[in-house]
Write a structure and sequence with these properties.
Organism: Gimesia algae
CATH architecture of the largest domain: Roll
Number of helices: 9
Keywords: Membrane, Transmembrane, Transmembrane helix
Strand content: 5-15%
Protein name: TPM domain-containing protein
Number of domains: 2
Length: 225
Amino acid sequence: MLSAFNYLNEEQQQQVEQSVVAAEKQTSCEIVPVIATSSGRYDRPEDVVGLWLTIVSALCLWYFFPRNGGQAGDWGGMPVIVELFLAAILLAIAFILGAIAGSRIGWLRRLFTPRLQMQDEVAARAREIFFDKRIHHTEGGTGILIYISLFEHIAVALADQSVIDKLGQPFLDQICQKLTTGLHSGNPTATLCETILEIGNQASTPLPRATDDQNELHDALVLID
């Protein structure tokens, strides 16, 4: 699974940070971009993949090592209790391997995780970061969070109420759509930079930067693994 720390190289991270600096020169908004590896634990795929691999292993045992007429089959006449013991061990191993695969292989986790659950997890995590990073606590109430969760392929834009009043919720929804489309196109750096600069341009008139405006939040790209 792709880590947030490997998503952009150092030069690309600096480009994003420079975009934040440039955007905040036009507006009083405090823009905080965040990239996270994942927003949820998602235990279900581990159980589902483990169960399916166990079922497939059981069918393979039944097919390749049959018992005919109560006599020992292809296992060389081993006692039934030994065969059952070995089968139980093999099935347990199959479940463990499936659980490991379900927890570490990204496309398997996404395949067996409902989309609605991922959306809820990303939204909850974004709200948590919005408060934990004190983005909501700026003096003018002008914090904006751009949150990208890599595993779920979902982007969220959150803002203080004063920003929503000036720019409108549809603008934030548009930002999310632009981020999602751009990230799917395979150019995350340009997408992030363009989005941040667009926020600065759109907010420059309704929320202009004052002459005595202080930079309350760090301009660095936040990475969460």
